[in-house]
């Protein structure tokens, strides 16, 4: 009984043709003439962006070195994960 109704549902689902109506009636494709024209020097923009990126790079390097220095001077990190020395007796 259930198999018959399930088979009818599957065959009914296969027979439905999808209808999509996404098209706009008065749609005009954009052209290159409608795009904005760049203004100003690309080189000035590029140099300003590189100056900002270099500042971030230098700031990150200073933060890394500062953090490393604080950890080594405070004694939190002492052996940097090298493990015990082989052949050295700790008596």
UniProtKB/TrEMBL annotation:
<dbReference type="InterPro" id="IPR031973">
    <property type="entry name" value="Deltameth_res_prag01"/>
</dbReference>
<keyword id="KW-0472">Membrane</keyword>
<feature type="transmembrane region" description="Helical">
    <location>
        <begin position="56"/>
        <end position="77"/>
    </location>
</feature>
<feature type="domain" description="Deltamethrin resistance protein prag01">
    <location>
        <begin position="34"/>
        <end position="77"/>
    </location>
</feature>
<protein>
    <recommendedName>
        <fullName>Deltamethrin resistance protein prag01 domain-containing protein</fullName>
    </recommendedName>
</protein>
<dbReference type="Pfam" id="PF16020">
    <property type="entry name" value="Deltameth_res"/>
</dbReference>
<keyword id="KW-1133">Transmembrane helix</keyword>
<keyword id="KW-0812">Transmembrane</keyword>
């Amino acid at each position: 009984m259930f198999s018959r109704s399930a088979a009818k549902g599957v065959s009914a689902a296969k027979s439905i043709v999808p209808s999509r109506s996404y098209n706009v009636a008065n749609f005009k494709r954009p052209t290159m003439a409608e795009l904005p024209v760049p203004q100003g020097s690309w080189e000035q923009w590029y140099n300003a962006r590189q100056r900002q990126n270099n500042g971030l790079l230098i700031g990150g390097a200073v933060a890394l070195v500062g953090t490393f220095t604080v950890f080594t001077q405070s004694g939190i990190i002492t052996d940097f994960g090298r493990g015990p020395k082989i052949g050295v007796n700790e008596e």
